[in-house]
Amino acid sequence: MKLITEPNFRDGDDRGLWPYARGDEFYEMLIEAHRDLDDAGSAMLNSKLVLLLANHVGELAVLREAIDAARTGIAPAAAPDA
Amino acid sequence: MLATYDYPKYAYRRPAELDRPAAAPAPVVVVGAGPVGLAAAIDLAQAGTPVILLDDDDTVSLGSRGVCYAKRTLEILDRLGCPQPAGRGVSWNVGRTFFDQDEVYSFNLAPQSDEQRPGMVNLQQYWLEQYLVERAQALPMLDLRFRNKVLGIDSRSDRVALRIETPDGEYSLDADWVVAADGARSPLRRMLGLDVDGKVFRDRFLIADVVMKADFPAERWFWFDPPFHRGQSVLLHKQADNVWRIDFQLGWQADPEEAKKPENVIPRIRAMLGPDREFELEWVSVYTFQCRRLNDFRHGRVLFVGDSAHQVSPFGARGANSGIQDTDNLCWKLGLVIAGRAPASLLDTYCAERIKAADENIANSTRSTDFITPKSRASLVFRNAVLDLARHHPFARALVNSGRLSVPTHLHDSPANTADIDAFEGRMRPGAPMDDAPVAGPAGPWLLPHCGGRFVLMVFADQPAALAPAIAQALTRFAQGSVPVETLLVSPPAAWPGLPGGAGAPDLTTLAAPTPGAVPVPGARQVCDLRGLVAERYDGRDGTCYLIRPDQHVCARWRRFDADAVARALARAIGTAVDPGEGRAA
Q1: Residues B252, B254, B255, CA angle at the centre, nearest 5°?
Q2: Residue A71 Cα, gap to closest chain B Cα (Å)
């Protein structure tokens, strides 16, 4: 199994829907879940969400690929001065 | 004053009611002659209902406001006999979204070719209003009154009493029905004490309309965090007469008065266009927006349409477009109610259907705005993560949301529909706005102009001349009913003996009057499905029937004609059916 990077959000009968519709619904759910949380709360929510979804995926090869894709483009923190 | 547009000044005429009160209430008064009020008044008047249209001003929209008119709106304008915005405006289908310097997402509003109208036409609002005023003034049933301002409204059970101010003094006017098209700040809504609930977005945007010669393509371009406007978004649209709309996100802290000053606007535009581009400022304004709607669009005898009923952010072109679709939905119903052919409860289906549409528009508009203007730190981080992933991954591109542009609502849940009992493929389910397709027929080379303004039963017939007499008699009864249903026969090229050279290169002029008199149904019209696209899009086979509403929406369909089923579906659509299951007169 390979990491799916094509649009993959769906919900039952999607006939006649614009291709962005289900993705937008998910995104709204996600942002809504963070409502009224401070930064620490948001970080905790995100971490729990990653763990839940990772367990759902299960396949380590897929998770490794996802971690690599997510890490791309994020610069490491500057090394502390010696 | 604008460099590219001269404002018309329309004549005020002294209303007769100043000198003597009207003998009877007007059937309907429309308040507000913006694009939505004009569309409503034209729709009613051309169907034969006398209309008074009031406007407090004597010209069109000041400055450039609405810009984008969507395919469904263009189709409605066709039905209203209004000149097409595409004549002067800019047709487009493609939008591109950039993050920093890279394109991360694009969309095409015309996923299906072979339709008459493009996905979108850009035209300054004042031009559209001018076209609509010209159309309105050509209609004898439409009494358009400039400089007539509504001062008071009293909504009673049997009529609505209006108090109106003119340059010659005040007068009273009673109406059976009032259509409130008086805009986002709707004075009628305020006078009736109605609340609108929704979200206010804490952000400001600067509109600059500039005149310049530029060879950018006719596309919608949107930038997140571009080098020339760091940390904010920018939107570029091409309009008519070399006018370009540039929309800069400013942030909530910006001082609107300072931001509007030319010495502050010009450097922003120079940064975007480069130091050598010559341009002139045509119009500058700073706006904020809300997404909200009235709880109900009907208050007794007052019906709210357009911005007075619902407001959205401009990202998605869902303002004027949804307002004109409100009138498309309302006017045939109101016409039937005024004519005494349908109960007033039919107007409640206007509310049900257009509240669903408003909620869809508000949801899309709110999602776009939450993406463009993240309200929390978490939301900002997710937005930037999507943009970063979008450089490499298709799924993230589809999440990039710079506006989901106006498309018509599918009214699948409407109580006016009759549920399918036969199996069909495709998206023309009851509640769907009709797909267009190329045809040859008396109303021209497209399907949509053959429908609209009345109920139509679209019948697919391989051999239209061989229609059974019993069916022809039943269709005749429908054509002569109190709410007439016109027959439209759709047949393949094989049924058209006059068709030269097959479907490949049809000569439309020779097809204007095929097999005359072959169909013994009064008023029946025939179209040739030149390339089989009507049959394909509607999953039509010999015998298939579609009942089409006056607003070009499907309301029922069957695999074979059944007069009782058509009669029941029509009764349901116009609200005269009694539904024993729910024990209510719909």
Answers
A1: 125
A2: 10
pLDDT digits (tens, 9 = 90+) for B229-269: 999 999 999 999 999 999 999 999 999 999 999 999 999 99
User: Which of B367, B410, B432 has the CB atom closest to A24's CB atom?
Assistant: B367
Show the domain range for A67. 37-73
Provide ipTM, 2 decimals: 0.94
- pLDDT number for residue B496: 80
- pLDDT tens-digit series, residues B143-186: 999 999 999 999 999 999 999 999 999 999 999 999 999 999 99
Q: Give the 3-state secondary structure of residue B169.
A: strand
Using CB atoms, pick whichever of A24, A31, A69 lies closest to residue B382.
A31
Q: Could you write out the DSSP letters of every residue in B177-206? A: EEEE---TT-HHHHHTT--EEEEE----EE
Neighbours of B217 (CB within 10 A): 9
Examine residue B244 and state whether it is found in any structural domain, yes or no.
Answer: no
End-of-domain residue from the set B368, B398, B419: B368
Name the pLDDT band for B578 (thresholds 50, 70, 90).
low
Asked if the C-beta of A48 comes within 8 angstroms of chain B's C-beta atoms, the answer is no
Kindly report the pTM of this predicted structure.
0.93
Closest chain A residue to B391, measured at CA: A73
Distance from CA of A82 to the nearest CA of B (A): 31
- Please check whether residue B435 lies inside any domain of the structure: no
Contact (Cβ atoms closer than 8 angstroms) between residue B394 and residue A6: yes
Of chain A, the end-to-end C-alpha distance in Å amounts to 44
Q: Decide if A72 touches B, using CB distance below 8 A.
A: yes
Does any CB of chain A come closer than 8 Å to the CB of residue B219? no
Is A5 close to B394, i.e. CB distance below 8 A?
yes
State the total domains in chain A: 1
Cα–Cα dist B405/B395, whole Å: 19
Query: By C-alpha distance, which of B24, B120, B135, B118 is closest to B79?
Result: B135
Of B366, B371, B410, nearest to A16 by CB-CB distance is B410
